[in-house]
Amino acid sequence: MTYYPPRYLFRRYEILHMIRPGHNFLEIGAGNLKLSQELLRLFNHGTLVDYNVETQFLYDRLDVSLHERFELIISDFSSLVLPQQYDCVIACEVLEHVQDDEAFVQKAYCLLRDQGQLILSVPSRMKFWSRHDEIVGHLRRYEKNDIIQLLKKNKFRNINIVSYGYPFVNLLRWASICLATYHYHEKKQWSQKKQSQKSGIVRTDGMADLLGILVNQYSTYPLCAFASLFNKFDLSNGYIITAGK
Fold first, then answer.
1. How many separate domains does the chain show?
2. Residue range 57-94, pLDDT digits in tens
């Protein structure tokens, strides 16, 4: 069974409950393409954007039938011109890497159809800042009011924020910090762009795939359901945001 990082599974659970089905979606920072494939259950077609060439390698390995429903563009979203609009624009763990997050949000707004839906996930609360943030290319963590004001300023409405995955993602944070300490001196020398690119691709080996037997969307479902009871409390170190045009 395919291995999915635990934090991704908590995020996936919430997003699939929040998202409105439609004709097409745009995913910025498609990374491992795991969520992209899940979204095809809800949309006919997806446009995927990532500036990491490793995503192209993963895309090429997908079944040919998926290529008919996906368009992958290897590019920096900030400089990309897209000719159409979308029912949903989704960007998970991207905004915190972007220098001009307001320009990013403005562009996302323009790419949405009327009544379209924006979905974001971001690391939350600067009190959780750690060495892990430093070496994965984060420029900031977001306070709830800051993200609300950013979206309101750029015309978004019906803004909803959940603090997802508590208490489990908070526990997983300590594993990330320990791993970051081990790699700190090497990755601290990388450019912010390289740090961001590498953070979007989670490499797995045979051992990780074996872990997929234990850690998957089915085994973690009860934990995800339990964590959702705390969504309205600002306790987690991650936010998922939905907003409408």
1. 1
2. 999 999 999 999 999 999 999 999 999 999 999 999 99
Give the DSSP H or E segment for 193: helix 192-199
The tens digit of pLDDT for each residue in 141-177 reads: 999 999 999 999 999 999 999 999 999 999 999 988 9
pTM metric for this prediction: 0.95
Q: Please answer whether residues 36 and 245 qualify as being in contact, where contact means their C-beta atoms are separated by less than 8 angstroms.
A: no
Per the prediction, the chain carries an average pLDDT of 93
Dihedral angle over CA of 42, 47, 52, 58, nearest 10: 60
Confidence of residue 208 (pLDDT cuts 50, 70, 90): low
Here the CATH number for the domain that contains residue 105 is 3.40.50.150
The pLDDT of residue 76 is 95
Q: Is residue 165 part of a domain?
A: yes
State which residues form the domain around 42: 6-244
Three-state SS for 89?
Answer: strand
The answer to whether 150 touches 108, Cβ cutoff 8 Å, is no
3-state secondary structure of 57: helix
Burial of 204 (0-12, 13-18, 19+ CB in 10 A): middle
Residue 203, SS3 per DSSP: coil
Element (H, E) at 23: none
Give the residue among 110, 124, 198 at the shortest CA–CA distance from 155: 110
The answer to the question of residue 1 being in a domain is no
